[in-house]
Amino acid sequence: MRQNKGSDEADKRALRRHIAEARRALTADDVRVAAAALAEQALALPELAQARTVAAYVSVGSEPGTRALLDALHERGVRVLLPALLPDNDLDWGLYTGEDSLASVRHGGRMHLFEPGGAPLGPDAILKADVVLLPGLAVDRRGMRLGRGGGSYDRVLARLERAGARPSLMVLLYDAEVVEHVPGEPHDRPVHAAVTPSGVRRFG
Predict the structure, then answer these.
(1) Would the pTM of this model clear 0.90, i.e. be above it?
(2) Whole-number Å distance between alpha carbons of 20 and 62
(3) How many CA atoms lie within 13 A of 165 on its CB side?
(4) Element (H, E) at 102
(5) pLDDT per position as a tens digit, 14-57
(6) Tens digits of per-residue pLDDT, 61-107?
(7) How far apart are CA 37 and CA 76, in angstroms?
(8) What is the distance between the alpha carbons of residues 82 and 93, in angstroms, rounded to a whole number?
(9) Is there a contact between 114 and 58 (Cβ–Cβ < 8 Å)?
(10) CA nearest 98: which of 71, 128, 66?
(11) How many CA atoms lie within 13 A of 199 on its CB side?
């Protein structure tokens, strides 16, 4: 069993490296064009059309861009929650009310993250979300998501499950990041859909 787990971890690391390299090869124009298409696809979803509270995140670097999507949701009158990383890698949440509500924060030696600059709402604020937009590196045909490996969103998903909350879970990706198989662990929870610049793929 340990050997299988070690093999899965090695496979995850290899897949993360592959996707990170592909993202680094994207130009600023590639990222901008994909972000506009991603926002268009997401905003057409019935789940987002009906949502009153959406938990999302601010993309950084060559991640699939979320800024246009955040602004459009805010303009619709949606209550948008953004994460703030805590020292134990759990996530607090705060409100997005426009670009001026963001603060640039560096966590240790990691990249700058853009986090809500207003009053923290607490980790349980996620329980009120109708939709949770998750970052990721890949998703497979079962809806199993590959994250960066920090475990922050594993905690979020476990918190939702413990509370009996049932928001729509959607991961935002580039088209090539919908793959055949993502190595999984027993605690991993599938997402309901992947949104990419070319469309939406639903699971389960």
Answers:
(1) yes
(2) 9
(3) 19
(4) strand 102-106
(5) 999 999 999 999 999 999 999 999 999 999 999 999 999 999 99
(6) 999 999 999 999 999 999 999 999 999 999 999 999 999 999 999 88
(7) 18
(8) 5
(9) yes
(10) 71
(11) 4
